[in-house]
């Protein structure tokens, strides 16, 4: 009788777990796998599903983040006079409910040699406020220069605020937090890693990179604050190529509001007052932009949906640079559909990445894409960390996000849509320069690799949702 009771209880638990997976999993393959797993392993299956199968990231982020936003009543412009940005501009407009912001100037800053002097110059000229958010702020020579510049600004009476991701802060010791604290700088850790109370999760990381100065300039892109982005430094053990951008104009206000949302979240503050902008939308602007925030909160899937939309709207070309390339089936379908329409699709990836599992999984994925006629190029070292997409002749998407599940579902990220033929051409020139030293990936060479390598890559590919 006792054994029968236990069997009935385990059966009910298994059915309940299987039903939850059936109703809540968006992917049919994933749902089927979990249903079978829960049913054939009556105790272990439901337990593992409870620990790893239920997505708590979005629910947790929404509970803790939604109350900390600020209202922004600044008007946007749906279709600036004399422009021809539709249908590409309509995708982001529909997704966010916002039109475009004017951008009076945008500078392309390649590697730390161009970026860090520009950032430090703006910090040294600041008179009101300096807001900095970054994933990595390493305690090296570059980090020390920024600490000193930020301290000088604070001593001048400038409002200095710094956000560093909690995982990024401990990823490359020694930790920068002690130095910031010693210099009495006002900094917060985004979702800090701690033992008591336990908070050890690797998800919900803030991967955004933002520097704001006096409401006049905003820096964003893929570069962190670290010596690794100094390619001309001979002792650099992991030289990393990347792009960053300095923007001015109305779009800066959106970056400032995004930073303050994150700051309020880190501070546990609910800001009810309206946001006060520093700039106005100038109708005669030559460059137009829109900031897209993405994260496991109310912004879930914004960048992924934007990408599906703009890739599906492309008419002549799609050029993609990304260090980590593990697109979902919807993005793969959009890329294949574009190629079938005659769009020039090119994807530029690093020959090797700094995350082995992600690299192996991507290698497994490439074979299928090559069979569909997509052109993929591999760039030898130094490691290219650039994240940029060029579509047709007047659209570009830049920012912090990679084309992988971690960026598009688990991290807090940002993307900036830039509508400008001039900027599009500048990114295209950068892409073309890198393309000249790259090698086109050959399908036959992928298949000729040893069997154990292909099996390794396929096993890594199974972990795609967590890479």
What's the structural blueprint in terms of helices and strands?
Elements: H1 2-24, H2 28-40, H3 44-53, H4 57-65, H5 88-96, E1 101-103, E2 105-110, H6 111-125, E3 129-134, H7 141-155, E4 159-165, H8 166-171, H9 177-182, E5 187-190, E6 210-213, E7 217-221, E8 240-241, E9 243-248, H10 251-267, E10 287-294, H11 302-313, E11 317-321, H12 329-340, E12 344-350, H13 356-371, E13 375-379, E14 383-384, E15 388-391, E16 395-399, H14 405-410, E17 413-419, H15 421-436, E18 439-440, H16 443-447, H17 451-461
Parallel strand pairs: 3-4, 4-5, 8-14, 11-12, 12-13
Antiparallel strand pairs: 1-10, 2-9, 3-6, 6-7, 7-9, 10-17, 11-15, 13-18, 15-16, 16-17
Helix pairs in contact: 1-2, 1-3, 2-3, 5-11, 6-7, 11-12, 13-17
For this entry, give a set of tags.
Endonuclease, Chain A, nine-stranded mixed beta sheet, alpha/beta, 19% strand, single chain, seven-stranded mixed beta sheet, 467 residues
Q: Strand-residue fraction?
A: 15-25%
The CATH homologous superfamily of the largest domain is termed Endonuclease Chain A
Q: How many separate helices?
A: 17
Strand order of the largest sheet: 1-10-17-16-15-11-12-13-18
CATH topology description of the largest domain:
Endonuclease, Chain A
Radius of gyration in whole Å, from Cα? Answer: 23 Å
